[in-house]
Design a protein that fits this description.
single chain; Rossmann fold; two-stranded parallel sheet; 12 helices
Length: 244
């Protein structure tokens, strides 16, 4: 497929690398311009482009930028055809993004994103740590393969997103509509906890909408207090313990 990725941070660049390795034609853009990511693009076999070029002439657009920056994309996303599948990988963290009243009042993050950019989105790859995405993909037949939730309101777009999640080495679980996507937001049992498919199904059911933001903020405070001392395994274990 022809895929454009806006955002070349840990998640965006890892997705570009993995999807290109699967044979997809990938264009990658960031906020600084193509020259700043040309070396990365050459290394992983993708095209370094502007944001405008990344969302033009593609079948799928993957948005992987800081949550508060989505309104900045409205001018270019308003020109994206309705049939183009748009996938949102972002998460809301008030300490980084500033307070956003609609989301704080309970509007699911990806519905807010859809409203800001003027295009419906599918929520995927938001509930996985960058290191997990980079290193822990497994073949489809593996009994310990990690599952990732995919939420959206369009059957075709959701199917495309699920197929791409599978390409990156994870089992895709249809997690309901965008209205249900709060169940995979930060602070829930499904968020960055490296679960198998049966475990993820249960985790989504156990999500508590009122408790999730409190868990999110408590986890962030704990991780910031520990600095860089926690290992990846300890981060996953802490997420599991504090959201159970």
């Amino acid at each position: 497929m022809k895929i454009g990725i806006v955002g070349a941070g840990n998640i965006g660049s890892t997705l570009a690398r993995k999807l290109a390795a699967c044979g997809h034609e990938v264009k990658l853009a960031n906020s600084k311009g193509p020259e700043s990511i040309q070396a990365l693009a050459n290394e992983i076999g993708v095209h370094a482009v502007t944001k405008e070029e990344a969302v033009s002439g593609v079948e799928v657009v993957i948005l992987s930028i800081p949550f508060a920056n989505y309104p900045d994309l409205e001018p270019i996303m308003s020109k994206v055809p309705e049939k183009t599948v748009v996938i949102d990988t972002s998460n809301y963290y008030p300490g980084r993004d500033g307070l956003i009243k609609e989301v704080d009042d309970g509007l699911p993050e990806s519905i807010w994103v859809s409203k800001r950019i003027g295009h419906p989105v599918i929520k995927a790859w938001n509930a996985v740590l960058a290191a997990t995405l980079a290193d822990k993909g497994q073949p489809a037949e593996s009994p310990t393969r990690i599952a990732l939730p995919v939420a959206g309101g369009d059957t075709y777009a959701e199917t495309i997103a699920q197929d791409l999640v599978e390409d990156t080495g994870f089992t895709a679980l249809a997690a309901g509509s965008l209205e249900d996507s709060w169940r995979q937001q930060p602070g829930t049992p499904a968020y960055c906890t490296e679960l198998t498919l049966p475990e993820l199904k249960l985790a989504l059911q156990m999500a508590d909408k009122e408790r999730a933001p409190k868990n999110r903020d408590a986890l962030l405070a704990k991780f910031m207090a520990s600095g860089s001392q926690l290992t990846h395994e300890q981060i996953v274990a802490t997420n599991r313990a504090m959201t159970a």
